[in-house]
Specification:
The complex is a heterodimer.
Chain A lengths: L1 H49 L2 E9 L4 H6 L5 E9 L5 E2 L4 E4 L2 E2 L4 E4 L7 E2 L4 E8 L8 E5 L5 E5 L2
Antiparallel strand pairs in A: 1-2, 2-8, 3-7, 4-5, 4-9, 6-8, 9-10
Chain B lengths: L1 H48 L2 E3 L9 E2 L4 E8 L13 E4 L2 E3 L4 E5 L10 E7 L6 E8 L2 E8 L1
Antiparallel strand pairs in B: 1-3, 2-3, 3-7, 4-5, 4-8, 6-7, 8-9
The chains are: A alpha+beta, B alpha+beta.
Chain lengths: 158, 150
C-alpha cells in the first residue's frame, strides 16, 4: 500500500510540475504582449498630444508657372497650402493626406522650407503642399490637411 | 502470501493508472487555458494596436451623393496594425442602424492596402433625408463616429 501511495503521489506531483511549466511558459508571454501594446498605445497618445500644425494660407492658382507649372502641365490649376509645424514632433511627408472639397487628392507635391526632396517636416518648419486639380472648371472652396495620428486642419481656399 | 502480493500489485497498478489519468487531465486543462490566454492576449494587443480616424471634411458636400444615395467616408489607419480593407471586416452604423456588408464598399485611396497611416474610402449605399446624421465605423473593437448635415 505504501508503494501505491508514493507512486501515485510522484505521478501527480510530476503532473502538477508539468502543468505549472506550461502555464508559466505562456501566461507571462501573454502579459508581456499586452503590456508592450499598451506601452505603444501610450507612445501614440503622447505623439498625438505633441503633434500640431496650423495652416497659414491656402490659395488657388489657375495659371501656375515656374516649377509647379512644369510639373503639372495638364492641371486646371493648383491648390497651394502653406502650413507651419507648431508641434514638437517630426511629421513624415508620406503620412500627410490632402482633401480638396472633401475629395482625397492622390497626387501631391511638397516642399519643406523650399526643399522638395526631404521626406520630413520638422517643428518650426513651413511646408508648401501643392495639389493639382485636373477637373475642368475646377473652383475649389475648402482644403483639409491631415497628418500623423489623424491631426487635421482645414481652411478656405482664397 | 502470494495472494496478498497479487492484490498489492493490482492496487499499485490501479493507483498509478488513476494518478496518471488525473495528472494527464490536469495538464490538458492547463494547456487549454494557456492556449486561450495566448489567443486572448494576441486579440487584446491587436485591438490596442488598432486605431482608426474618420478624416472626411464635414464642411464639404463630398460626404453624401444624393444622386447615387451614397455616403462617402474617408477613414485613416492611425494605429500600428495592417487592417483588412474588406467590407466584411468593417461594421458600419448609420444613425444607429447596422448596414449590411453588401451595401458597403471599401476602396484604398492612398495605396493598395490599409497599412498604418493609409486611407480608405468607405462607400455606404444608404439614402439619407435632409437633416443631421451620424455614421459610425467599427474595426477590430475600435470605432470612430462622424456627425454631419445633409
Amino acid at each position: 500500500m505504501g508503494f501505491s501511495v508514493s507512486g501515485a503521489t510522484v505521478i501527480i506531483i510530476l503532473g502538477l510540475l508539468v502543468a505549472f511549466g506550461v502555464a508559466m511558459a505562456t501566461v507571462p508571454a501573454g502579459i508581456d504582449q499586452v503590456t508592450s501594446a499598451q506601452s505603444a498605445s501610450s507612445d501614440r497618445l503622447l505623439g498625438q498630444q505633441n503633434t500640431d500644425f496650423e495652416i497659414v494660407d491656402a490659395k488657388w492658382d489657375d495659371e501656375p508657372g515656374g516649377l509647379l507649372g512644369f510639373l503639372f502641365p495638364e492641371a486646371e490649376g493648383l491648390v497651394i497650402v502653406n502650413a507651419n509645424n507648431t508641434g514638437t514632433t517630426t511629421i513624415e511627408i508620406d503620412d500627410i493626406d490632402v482633401l480638396v472639397d472633401g475629395t482625397y487628392r492622390e497626387e501631391v507635391h511638397t516642399a519643406v522650407n523650399g526643399n522638395n526632396e526631404t521626406r520630413l517636416w520638422q517643428p518650426n518648419e513651413t511646408i508648401e503642399i501643392t495639389a493639382p486639380l485636373f477637373e475642368e472648371g475646377a473652383d475649389p472652396e475648402r482644403v483639409k490637411v491631415i497628418v500623423t495620428h489623424g491631426i487635421s486642419e482645414s481652411a478656405g481656399v482664397g | 502470501m502470494a495472494l496478498v502480493s497479487v492484490e498489492h500489485l493490482v492496487l499499485f497498478i490501479a493507483s498509478l493508472l488513476i494518478a496518471a489519468t488525473v495528472a494527464g487531465a490536469l495538464i490538458g486543462v492547463v494547456d487549454r487555458g494557456s492556449n486561450a490566454v495566448t489567443q486572448q492576449s494576441m486579440a487584446l494587443s491587436d485591438s490596442i494596436d488598432t486605431d482608426i480616424t474618420i478624416i472626411s471634411d464635414r464642411g464639404s458636400d463630398a460626404m453624401y451623393d444624393s444622386g447615387d444615395e451614397q455616403i462617402r467616408v474617408l477613414v485613416k489607419n492611425t494605429g500600428e496594425t495592417h487592417l483588412n480593407p474588406n467590407s466584411s471586416r468593417i461594421d458600419v452604423l448609420v444613425n444607429g442602424d447596422f448596414v449590411h456588408p453588401d451595401d458597403v464598399t471599401v476602396t484604398p485611396v492612398s495605396s493598395d492596402g490599409w497599412a498604418p497611416q493609409e486611407v480608405v474610402l468607405v462607400k455606404i449605399d444608404h439614402g439619407l433625408d435632409a437633416g443631421d446624421h451620424r455614421v459610425t465605423i467599427h474595426v477590430n473593437r475600435n470605432s470612430d463616429t462622424i456627425q454631419f448635415r445633409v
